[in-house]
Amino acid sequence: MSLPKSITKQSMELVKVLPSIFKAAKTIYDISKQVKANKNQCKRLSERVQCVVAILKDGSLDDSNIASMEIALRNLEETLQESVNFVQEFTDSSIISRILHNSDHQDKFEELTTRLSYNAIDLHLALNINSIFDQQQDVFDRQADLAEISSKIDELALEMVKQQEVTLKQNKNIKDEFKKRFDSFKYNLRQDVLKAQKGIEAKIIEEESKLFLHIPYHDLLFEEQIGQGGFADVYKGQWLSQHHQVGIKTIRITYLTDNIKQSVLNEIATMYKIRYNHVLGVFGACIEPNNYALVVEYMSLGSLFDVLQKNEHINSWEDRWSIALQMAKGVNYLHSMSILHCDIKSLNFLMEKAIDGYLVKISDFGLAKIRQETSRQTSEQAQQLVESRGTLQWKAPELLKFGKPSQASDIYSLGIVLWELATRCIPYDGVDEAVICQGVKAGERLEIPQDVPSSFASIISQAWSQEPNKRPTASALIQVIKTFISNTVEKSNIPKISLAQAQPNDKNVIKPEVTLVANELYTSHNPKLEALISQFQSCSSMNLSKQHLTDSDMDIVIQQVIVNKQCTNLWLECNKITSKGASILANALHNNTTLCELWLYGNQISDTGVNYLATALTINTTLKKLGLAFNNITNAGVSHLVEMLKKNHTLIMLGLAMNKIGNQGVQALANTIAHQNTSLEILTLDRNEFISDSSIDVLVNMIKQSQTMKELWINDCNLSEKGKKKFREKIAFKKDFKLVTTYERSS
């Protein structure tokens, strides 16, 4: 390739850059003819590149300022190389599966076009910028590409289903599953086109997407049916894109009219926002015609009802007390959020084995509209199933008299569940429904066996009191259960505590004020912490550093700071939070939509705690900055963060200073950031004494390959002075990159 004739001796340094620029331009031209999607936009980008390069080939370079011209050429070279990589994506047949994220492509086209125009300006090229980079033409190209996608939706959807062929082979009903997935791909492609067209429909779709995470049907794999309830069938399954085992509750409705849809979406949104250890987490929902499902946490033991009837677990009263406490906590949390469950029964408490016994979570809350619509759309046969699995055995007497649901009616139902827990029996098994109704309204109750400890019998009896105002609140239950647990459960001479005395006489308040329940919610109290939190405004930053906080304070932090006040930036530095506290924080992070920064410097999180946080951040799409400095994290902890960074595309800053991370961890981290992460901008690894010169090459490659990294702190590690110099020289071409190998402290 011949070089420009007018190149002078003074500008010979610039000549070294030109061949790679010309080569990249030729590559863009060639591959733009081979793309399978976004053809018009790829062609337009290529034409603009050719316009810029043509002038360079003619020798139109301003060599009056060699230094600035070299920088401008290097920037152009970087833009063209990034354009090559981007356009290359559309030549791959697998791009078909990524058309669903077409709006992301639009942003990238706009970014590259803008950068190219700036490159031309910086090079002082004689170009009509406004004409060549006509934004109206970009709009026409975009519309043409969208029109092509629209005309090929069936073809694209079919191709996408074929790519899941291996997955489909595992399904017994393969023809029906093939059609469902085809319809799902087709529906989501249409939605994507509507969003890209930016019309009225796009605004509606955008507003709905803010309510909760919408998970396409084709992103779910149904493995086996594990349950069947009044409004849904429950499956064990996989969330394919997240490689995560989940529970999938397929709701028995086939369509949603506009006037019903918003109510259903709002109910799901309420469930989605709730994060608490003893409330079943909702990851998102599938809302597609003929495919409506909730995607929730998978609990391997199934329901409390299943566990009790299998007679394989729960042999000790210690376990029973623990389960009772966790159930009361779950109900109390819902009541504190002004949510009535209205369907409490043993089938709606799900269980998982834990290190110290069992983990219990309440499910199926806040679904009145969904239940109503399910009932309306279900067939007579399905309705009979609903009735056979009804809730009559758990209904409070006032509800049998057409009274309104209340917190007290939820507590009555919980009393029946406590009786099941104590006896392992099915309530009113084999008794006619009319007889049950008559007996319950008359004040008759199930018999409590003599071998049930009097303390446990006491809370059952008071929970199912005939008069609603004599039943305890869930908060009062928690307090008294904890009192009994603190004593020896088997003792028969435990003083009987009146639960009714432990609560205000609220006379069936249906929805309490959330502000009144702060002290009812937590299993431990910290008046100083609560007073400090009360000083902060909602939706603001909160600094709770150096407050001697422990794991037991995390429930307060979650409820008052993250849930109630919707904190945006949270400092918890220099406290005494361990991996247990990290697990509580992680549980809240799963679907949190407000917290953007979390700083945990100087705690005792450890590798185990990092695992909890990393798992949550594979799903969380809000948190942007995470500080984990000085937390005794090793390469093992980094391995969890590596897996998280492969899936998380919102985190921009990760702080790992002052830990015990070595070269192995750094290399895994750097390789992931270089090739599998598209968001991280700042990484701090300073003061990790096990990081040496052997990590330099992989970090250099990370900086070269990553399209987002802007800043790396690696000072005060075990790098030699020669290694630091080599590092700086190798990334000198990235003028705007901030590399800190030596920290200069101010005097």
Automatic annotation (TrEMBL):
One of its GO terms (molecular function) is protein serine/threonine kinase activity. Residues 220-485 form the Protein kinase domain. InterPro entries: Adaptor_Cbl_N_dom_sf, Kinase-like_dom_sf, Leu-rich_rpt, LRR_dom_sf, MLKL-like_MCAfunc, MLKL_N, Prot_kinase_dom, Ser-Thr/Tyr_kinase_cat_dom. Keywords: ATP-binding, Leucine-rich repeat, Nucleotide-binding, Repeat. This is Protein kinase domain-containing protein. Pfam families: LRR_6 (PF13516), MLKL_N (PF22215), PK_Tyr_Ser-Thr (PF07714). PROSITE patterns: PROTEIN_KINASE_DOM, PROTEIN_KINASE_ST. Signal peptide: none annotated. GO terms for biological process: cell surface receptor signaling pathway.
